[in-house]
Amino acid sequence: MAFEGLTERLQNAIGKLRRKGKISESDVKEVMREIRLALLEADVNFGVVKDFVKTVRGRAVGAEVLESLTPAQQIVKIVNEELVKVMGEQAVPLNKSPKIPTVIMMVGLQGAGKTTTASKLALKLKNEQNARPLMIAADVYRPAAIDQLKTLGAENDLPVFDMGTDVSPVKIVEEGLKVAEENKNDYVFIDTAGRLQIDEKLMQELADIQKLASPDEVLLTVDSMTGQNATEVAEGFNEQLNITGVILTKLDGDTRGGAALSIRAVTGKPIKFIGQGEKMADLDVFYPDRMASRILG
Ligand code: GDP
């Protein structure tokens, strides 16, 4: 289960305080040492852990906590509040264009869940807002990617625009946007190519698509199972494309969860959705407070 190790370690660390009546500054120091290790082991970014621990420690050595009759509860409260802060406080909704269509460009490494997530999100908008999305298949390097998008489109009654693999992605997007305009689609999803890792050529291609399409959202899909790497990938894409948000996938798996806690702090960009399974319905809005409660168990 996601966060299992982290939750257990945080609970153990704070639990030790429950047996004490009053706590001292050195008790706080000890519990913070354990929280620090728990976060590092869960693949939370080093700088994020450092700042987090400093803030929590600063608040926890305050007189109210040390003199409280329930110090453990006070510390749980502080940790919870700071977890929520690190993850961005509030859920951040999708950007919406004042005039249709709202263009959402999906980017991410191969296998992160980009194609699946594009379809999940398009379907969510269709179901919840009666939206009429068009999906554009612009991953010309992996023929299977186009077929996958077409299959998902057919299964969920979502139109897909494609021109096969012999046309440049920029051209496909250009033509796709014309079709969306003619058909008055209110959302357009551009499914772009992924690679195994960030490379110059891919980034240039994505930048070209971005220039042409002026998307309202550049959503990066990252796989939470990839640990520290997920945060590095987010940083890399953000530097090159100035992303507008992140979708963190595979939180149903055995992820240690560090990416959920690091991405916002490192990139300054919000996690907007989380993927929690392979099925189309397994996509949820990211609520920092709910995630903090889940982490604390
Ligand atoms: P892409 O290469 O980025 O387009 O990735 P795909 O959309 O093809 O997804 C890669 C694999 O991850 C597929 O088998 C998906 O079903 C799976 N996947 C995507 N999102 C999730 C998720 O949130 N949870 C789980 N368990 N699997 C996911």
TrEMBL record:
GTP binds at residues 108-115, 191-195, 249-252. The keyword Nucleotide-binding applies. Residues 2-87 form the Signal recognition particle SRP54 helical bundle domain. Keywords: Cytoplasm, GTP-binding, Hydrolase, Nucleotide-binding, Ribonucleoprotein, RNA-binding, Signal recognition particle. The keyword NAD does not apply. It is an enzyme of class 3 (hydrolase). Belongs to the GTP-binding SRP family. SRP54 subfamily. This is Signal recognition particle protein. The chain holds residues 1 to 297 of 477 of the full protein.
